[in-house]
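[09:14] KT: can someone run the structure on this one? pasting the chain below
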Amino acid sequence: MTAFFALATSLLIGLADFGGGLLSRRVPALTVVVVSQSIAAVVLGGVVVVTGAWRDAEPRLWLAVVAGLLGPLAMLAFYKALALGPMGIVSPLSTIGVAVPVGVGLALGERPGPVQAGGILIAVVGVLLAGGPRVGGAAVRGRTVLLTLGAAFGFGAVMALIAEASSTVPGLFLALFVQRATNVVAGGAALAVSAGRGGRVLPAGGLRPLLASLPALAFVGLADVAANGTYSLAVQRGPVTVAAVLAYLYPVITAVAARGVLRERLRGVQAAGAGLALVGTLLLATG
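[09:31] RB: done, structure tokens below
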């Protein structure tokens, strides 16, 4: 079940990142974050009310608040990086954030066996190659790299915090709601400040294009929150080191989505990377 939930996390993150990256090319990145997370917060609020999840509140819920403050910063940095640079470089580079949850697992005393250690190495190399690293061509701007690295470690910290914010499934719903509500408050404040300084809030064309984008924004927000949930379920059922690496296979999904939607051709190095990622996944799941 650890492998199942972690791979589901990869699928959800990959699709959410692809959608968020596309939206950020026509809608301001901060607006994408605030609107998508607001939709997720409303849905989660309904789930908390229906399930009575508020009864599972515990002191560690403050970890969800911290995650909620880090989340908008990480998402904003990542969406801006995707809007500024090629997805084939930004997406795999963001996988360096796996060092955060893996580090947490090692700090808690987890020690993967030889087969799993080999699977981790192969999977990480495969993910990096699956993004299609470029040897030639125009250089990627330093700002794009810095934004991507900041987002990577932010995402890793959020995943680690949410995984520790609850010990029950209803508590997980509550933790995710608190995280998203904090996301909306922090992101909304940043959006207000940006608007006050003359920053662009609406896409070109005004409110109508934003309303037309609501279904896509809802998908991004709900897929993102679902990914946090499936990752928490994964680490509750198995080693963090294994769950984290499997959850970070999402660049493969992003590359496949780009191929299917944008008709981007998979290069040989990307196909080889996807194959290595699959081998690493099998080793992790069976090791």
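[09:33] KT: thanks! Confidence is low (pLDDT under 50) at residues 135-139.
[09:34] RB: yep, looked fine to me
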